[in-house]
Write a structure and sequence with these properties.
Elements: H1 2-11, E1 39-40, E2 45-48, E3 54-57, E4 60-61, E5 67-71, E6 77-79, E7 85-88, E8 94-104, E9 107-117, E10 127-130, H2 132-135, H3 141-153, E11 163-165, H4 201-210, E12 214-219, H5 236-246, E13 250-254, H6 273-283, E14 290-294, H7 305-308, E15 311-313, H8 328-337, E16 348-350, E17 358-360, E18 368-370, H9 375-387, E19 392-394, H10 403-409, H11 412-418, E20 427-429, E21 435-441, E22 447-453, E23 459-464, E24 474-478, E25 483-488, E26 491-496, E27 501-508
Parallel strand pairs: 2-9, 10-11, 10-19, 11-12, 12-13, 13-14, 14-15, 15-16
Antiparallel strand pairs: 1-4, 3-7, 5-8, 6-7, 8-9, 17-18, 20-21, 21-22, 22-27, 23-26, 24-25, 24-27
Helix pairs in contact: 3-4, 5-6, 9-11
């Protein structure tokens, strides 16, 4: 009887177990609370082009106020000691290594940090939030600003989340009679016109930047976006200038209607042309803009995406993926996993967003509801994305973040796997109908490993060191619970919940 009750709890959507005043969900929270003393959670490596403006908020948990300091701060960079926000420019290419320091009444912390000033951005996978799967065509300036506020207030920014990205529906809409979004789409000089829900795009970006965060925007290379709003076709250079002048730091470039103007598929440049065009225009700007190729894996984009962008979608929309025997993130993630060898610093396979918490139905662009993913499935989701060095872009409702969702999104040891500067994507091992294993080499010589249970029941799974091509005594650490499990000589065995994961890190002893 106890097993039946336990299984029913696992099958319940998150909201059933997270009602105010209920403690049922507490038992599923694995991530420990951060200490009151400072802990810097920045990546070790950050890319910047010469002469372009830097905005970087040092991600740091701990009881505020925290005082920040940087040893060997490069010339041209300033630090706000109270907020930990770095700003400025570096004119000369090179590698600038410094020590970030944080101090409060409970202790201090330091971490090495390197600015690589050159021609590569996104040296680790981008982290942030996107508006699409929550707000769809209801998005507004106010909602974007509130999302930035929530990124700070919830502590997500303290773990490295930094992009606040608007998706479709900020422009004027084709043939719309809605006074908010219908009307002239470009001015007499061809400059794109935001709809009335966005009265001041530069002001919105400035607001996001003032918090030490980054602003992202969206458009299509075609005449229209997927939701039939104005696209960039024949205005690519002009739009690149506009986006830079407004202050955007990220561009999602969505194929959508481009197929209507792309020409013949037999043309070897059919898939790459629009992305190369915008990539070349963005590189001319005096602002760093990360380019996300959203074209659903067409034309084997993983083979050439790194030449014309920083990350590229490898599949269709996760929000439209059918749930068969397993939730859709499994099929999307496993498809993305096949392209591991193409991921490198500055160029990442993108399996779409993290859809947990409150999310809307993509089929009808509906209002958000609590996820129907079981708790262990959500841990598996975040583990897969972290191991695959995927962009960690959350697309749930920032205004309805609960303790459990934040526990999944904000585990610094799990995120460290994603942000590892070696930039290797996990390789898929031992895939069967009942389980699979992902293995990711880390810069310090350790291995991050995800052991996934695909069964509807609890399963005991073992991994042998010879499977991983390692030998000898190894220290194993549980990353979700952030505790050492012991030293093992030739294998490791663990019990895993239905559709759950054991995410571990294996260190040389």
């Amino acid at each position: 009887m106890r097993f039946i009750i336990f299984f029913l709890l696992l099958s319940m959507p998150a909201w059933v177990m997270s009602q105010e005043g209920s403690s049922k969900y507490e038992e599923y929270i694995l991530t420990p609370e951060p200490p009151q003393s400072p802990q810097i959670n920045s990546t070790a490596l950050y890319g910047l082009r010469p002469g372009t403006p830097l905005i970087y908020r040092i991600p740091c948990t701990g009881k505020r106020p925290i005082k920040f300091e940087i040893e060997d701060l490069p010339k041209g960079i300033l630090l706000d000691e109270e907020t930990g926000i770095m700003t400025g420019t570096i004119k000369n290419p090179g590698s600038y290594t410094m020590t970030l320091k944080a101090k409060n009444d409970h202790g201090n912390f330091s971490k090495e940090f390197t600015l690589n000033v050159g021609d590569k951005l996104a040296l680790t996978p981008p982290m942030g939030w996107n508006s699409w799967y929550t707000h769809y065509d209801r998005i507004s300036d106010r909602t974007m600003r509130e999302a930035a506020d929530q990124m700070i207030a919830t502590g997500m920014a303290d773990y490295g989340y930094q992009y606040v990205n608007i998706d479709d529906c900020w422009m004027m809409k084709m043939k719309s009679k809605d006074p908010d979004v219908g009307g002239k789409r470009r001015d007499k000089d061809g400059e794109i016109i935001p709809n009335k829900r966005f009265p001041n795009m530069k002001g919105m970006a400035d607001y996001i930047h003032a918090k030490g965060l980054k602003a992202g925007i969206y458009i299509s290379p075609g005449p229209a976006t997927c939701a039939s709003y104005e696209g960039s076709y024949q205005h690519e250079a002009q739009d690149a200038v506009t986006f830079a002048e407004w202050g955007f730091d990220f561009l999602k470039y969505d194929w959508c209607s481009y197929s209507k103007v792309a020409g013949k598929k037999s043309d070897p440049d059919y898939f790459i042309r629009p992305y190369r065009l915008m990539w070349d225009e963005l590189k001319k700007q005096d602002r760093d803009i990360v380019l996300n190729l959203c074209q659903y894996g067409m034309g084997n984009v993983w083979e050439w995406g790194g030449d014309v962008g920083n990350c590229w979608r490898t599949t269709g929309d996760l929000g439209l993926e059918e749930h068969k025997n397993l939730p859709g993130f499994y099929s999307i993630g496993l498809s993305n996993a096949r392209h591991a060898k193409y991921a490198i610093p500055g160029g990442w396979n993108d399996p779409d967003y993290i859809l947990i918490g409150w999310v809307g139905d993509a089929h009808g662009m509906a209002e958000g509801t609590p996820t129907d993913l079981a708790p262990w499935e959500q841990y598996s989701y975040m583990s897969m994305w972290s191991l695959m060095a995927a962009p960690l872009i959350f697309s749930g409702d920032m205004a309805k973040l609960d303790k459990f969702t934040l526990n999944v999104l904000c585990n610094n040891e799990v995120i460290e796997v994603n942000q590892d500067p070696l930039g290797k994507q996990a390789i898929l091992h031992e895939k069967t109908n009942q389980q699979f294993i992902m293995v990711k080499p880390m810069v310090d010589g350790s291995l991050a490993v995800g052991i996934f249970n695909l069964k509807d029941g609890v399963q005991e799974i073992s991994i042998k060191w010879d499977q991983l091509q390692i030998t000898g005594n190894k220290r194993v650490r549980d990353l979700w619970r952030q505790k050492d499990l012991g030293v093992f000589s030739d294998h490791f065995t663990t019990e895993i919940q239905p559709h759950g994961v054991s995410m571990i890190r294996i260190f040389n002893e």
